[in-house]
Write a structure and sequence with these properties.
It is built from 13 helices and 15 strands. The chain is an alpha+beta fold. It folds into 3 domains: 3-90, no CATH class; 95-248, Roll (ph1033 like fold), CATH 3.10.590; 285-394, no CATH class. It is globular, with a radius of gyration of 24 Å.
Length: 396
């Protein structure tokens, strides 16, 4: 294989064909233009498959390489590329929230706010053709939930970085690498072995209050650990706003600088008014709070009780048959269970099943939970019909 074709194949594999926009492609022919636009120097139309092997066609070899990559990604678990109903499907980006601690904020500035360049000594082999680039990582974890978030991270996914009470930046995953060597090289911390390259970096983050409102989260506006937003939530944002980027990363236009200050340019003495109509499913918040109190904020799956202050617990209520289209579940106690944030995310992502008759739990990746029974208070009945709906429609 010629060097340019091999380089193209490696880039497409590493980035999981990130150059191809999300959505359905009926044939691979629809993929080629995006590949050639992203890597024009590696797509030689005059180098044909027939020059590589006796049975080759008169099609350029770079197209053959693209097809090979697509087939390989189709077989990879948690890949951006899937085969659905005879067509190719390029998954829409997921949304991750990642806290940056006070201890790590200087390192974030060195390797994300600023690019890592070839000037750094002894560049690891995995990064030789990537520099300059922005790089961040995630430490090893004993939490099965957090590990599942890491395993599912793909090129194209969106990340919001949180520090000191608000989001400070955003970026997109370009490539994921498992390497304690890189973690040690960049941050003297081999435990940060789950490394990802960051593209489309923006040194600006949306207001956490607005994000929490969009995601339907509670009043406690804090990111305590690395997390993946539920696919159900991001799908609802895509349906309403067209994309999660349009929903989350909207920002006011910048005002052109003049001799006046920015504050002097903004505002008006006679503000106009406009009416807006927002169509949202209204939850019965009183019922939600009653259930949380009934269980004393203990998760019905793991019985963990979290605190949001010294004298106040924290839990979340999940609807087994989700509210709103296309599920249109009812807002009744029989359709609700009380969960910790991790198991709430697992339910949203279809990682948990509950047998309606026995209430036995089956967890996709946490063997310590599987086999236990759902904890149910004597004053709370969980509806079998809603458990069945969750098992058949969400946990498929």
């Amino acid at each position: 294989m010629r060097d340019d074709v091999r380089a193209l194949q490696d880039r497409l594999l590493e980035t999981e064909l990130l150059c191809v926009p999300s959505g359905t492609r009926d044939t691979t022919e629809e993929v080629y233009p995006a590949v050639k636009s992203a890597y024009p120097d590696l797509c030689d139309d005059d180098y044909l498959c027939s020059e590589v092997c006796d049975g080759g066609t008169d099609q350029p070899e770079w197209m053959h390489a693209t097809r090979r990559v697509q087939q390989q990604l189709k077989r990879k678990e948690n890949s951006r590329v899937e085969r659905r109903d005879g067509s190719w499907f390029y998954n829409f980006p997921a949304l991750y929230l990642q806290p940056v601690s006070d201890e790590w904020i200087d390192r974030f500035a060195r390797t994300v706010r600023s690019e890592v360049t070839e000037g750094w000594a002894t560049v690891p082999e995995e990064l030789e053709h990537e520099l300059p680039t922005r790089i961040w990582g995630i430490e090893e974890t004993d939490s099965p939930a957090h590990q599942s978030y890491i395993d599912r991270m793909c090129p194209g996914d969106l990340v919001l970085y949180y520090h000191d009470g608000d989001f400070i930046a955003s970026g997109r995953v370009k490539r994921t690498i498992e390497s304690d060597v890189i973690g040690d090289w960049l941050w003297n911390n081999p435990q940060s072995k789950w490394v990802y390259l960051v593209t489309e970096y923006d040194d600006w983050g949306p207001d956490i209050g607005e994000v929490w409102s969009l995601l339907g989260y509670g009043d406690r506006q804090i990111v305590t650990g690395f997390m993946r937003v539920s696919d159900i939530v991001t799908e609802e944002l895509r349906r309403e706003y067209g994309s999660i980027e349009s929903a989350i990363l909207w920002r006011p236009r910048e005002v052109e600088k003049t001799s006046e200050t920015v504050l002097e340019q903004l505002g008006t003495e006679s503000p106009k008014r406009r009416s807006t109509v927002q169509d949202q499913v209204q939850r019965d918040q009183r019922l939600v709070e009653e259930l949380k109190c009934l269980y004393d904020h203990r998760c019905q799956i793991c019985e963990t009780r979290l605190q949001q202050s010294s004298n106040k617990g924290y839990s979340e209520v999940h609807h087994l048959q989700p509210l709103g289209s296309p599920h249109d579940g009812p807002d009744v106690s029989e359709n609700m269970i009380v969960l910790c944030p991790n198991h709430h995310a697992d339910f949203d992502n279809g990682m948990v099943r509950i047998e309606p008759d026995s209430l036995q739990i089956t967890h996709e990746y946490d063997t310590e939970i599987s086999g236990h029974s759902l904890s149910v208070h004597s004053d709370h009945e969980v509806g079998e019909v809603y458990l069945q709906y969750h098992n058949s429609e969400i946990a498929r």
